[in-house]
Amino acid sequence: MNVINLTYKSANCFLISADDGWVMIDTGWPDTFSQLLQLLNQNNISAYEINYLIITHFHPGHAGLTQNLKDLGTNLIMLENQVAFFNKLNLFYKKNPKANFKDITTSNNIILSDYDSRNFLKSIGIDGELISTPGHSDDSISLVIDEDCAFIGDLPTYSMLEAYDDIVIEDSWDLIQQYHVKTIYPGHGEPYEI
Length: 194
Ligand SMILES: [Zn+2]
Hints:
By secondary structure, this protein is an alpha/beta fold. It has a single domain (3-193), classed as 4-Layer Sandwich (Metallo-beta-lactamase, Chain A). It has 7 helices and 11 strands. It has helices at 33-42, 60-63, 66-70, 83-95, 114-123, 161-164, 167-177; strands spanning 3-5, 14-18, 21-25, 50-54, 75-79, 109-112, 128-132, 141-145, 149-153, 183-186, 192-193. Strands 1-2-3-4-5-6 form a 6-stranded mixed β-sheet. Strands 7-8-9-10-11 form a 5-stranded mixed β-sheet. Helix 4 (83-95) links the parallel strand 5 (75-79) and strand 6 (109-112). The model has no long low-confidence stretch (mean pLDDT 95).
């Protein structure tokens, strides 16, 4: 899988290609849209070509530009268990309005079950699944590409499993490994092999 990493302000933001445009995984911090557009430009990609967005979890450094992209026509793909969480981020920024955050709306959202996600991804040319991988937060999900790679957001690093000694994190990693992935793309830092 060809993965483009647009990293700025320490938060990784990835692009993979689908049949009809790009899928973006995470968006970076609020109020940084011009930086994201600049990076896209450097990669000869127009923001209008990003048809789908997946947010690994609704924390500010990952979901900050969700609505900026949706306003350009991007569809937000979510697992059912994430729906309650984008509102929490909206509420946080209502109380902290400094960051120029755009409220995430209910339009252009594609809400899927784990099971439906495989069929949906297949329909856009991607063999994989969206799975719930809690551990860092309850709304954390991963995009797993069969026999290839996983985008895991802020799930603690595989090599730290023993140090965390946390059954929720271990279960998430057990699930990810069922897809026989080799490369891990974390929300921060460099990709690594497992
Ligand atoms: Zn986080």
